[in-house]
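Bug #77: duplicate submission created two jobs. Keeping one. Sequence:
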Amino acid sequence: MNNPAQIEFIVPAFNESEGIVKTCERLITVLESSNLTGNIIFVDDGSTDNMWQILKDIAENDKRVKLIRFSRNFGHQAAITAGLAHSHADYNFILDADLQDPPELLTGMLALAGEGYDVVYGVRTSREGETALKKGTASLFYRVINLFSPFPIPLDAGDFRLVSARARALFLHVSDKERLNREIWAWVGLKQIGINYHRPARAFGKSKYNWKRMLKLAFDGLTAGGTGVLLVPAIVSFLLFALSIILLVSISTLAAGLAFTASAVLLGMTIAGFYIGRLYHQSRKRPTYLIWERL
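Kept job's structure:
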């Protein structure tokens, strides 16, 4: 559709009180300039600052601003999922509250959607204000995951995207508890395309993705696509077993060979244990998030 009847922005946010007013003003400006009708859905992911009260004050004066508040912090991926689950628009525009994903890119994304694409995702050609280590690990993240996933994730593409109602409906069929949404979008299929953009530095606040959260996201990505990652300990075990035979025959260092083999087995058991843990969490059938309040 060249002119969708309605569009809804999905904006996950956590402790962004410092700049949430600026974010809301800019998003409303983009919405009005697009000549589309729609709303902005903020999902408060269990913030501990006064962001919720600020958003409530805004929403009371502008009915286009809708609010969802979690009972605690359930994570960025869950917040996006909740926003999509409460939308009925023709299109959803997913972006973070820190404005590093430029909302003005909506016009170009809508143009591509008008050509028949159900998912238009942003591709970061450059990342301002980030260390070389952060950029390097981010680049490695996608490439390692795609080695094992049967549904490759577009390189350097995050959660910033425009999706159709049809894509949203298919996405919401997925009931994974440990989610990597960008992998789910790849799994959904349909017609998808990327659009390049420069990602500026944060204008305010600090990133909420510490190393612990990033490592969890990375592991969720490795295990989300299937069991391909289990090939790693299998290959390592085979190589170390061959090495132990060589050591035994040539140098007679049986202890060294056994140690290498044991380490490979332990690695395999560890990765298998993570899969079993995921199955345990999935079997409990707890919801991905809990909503405390809606406005």
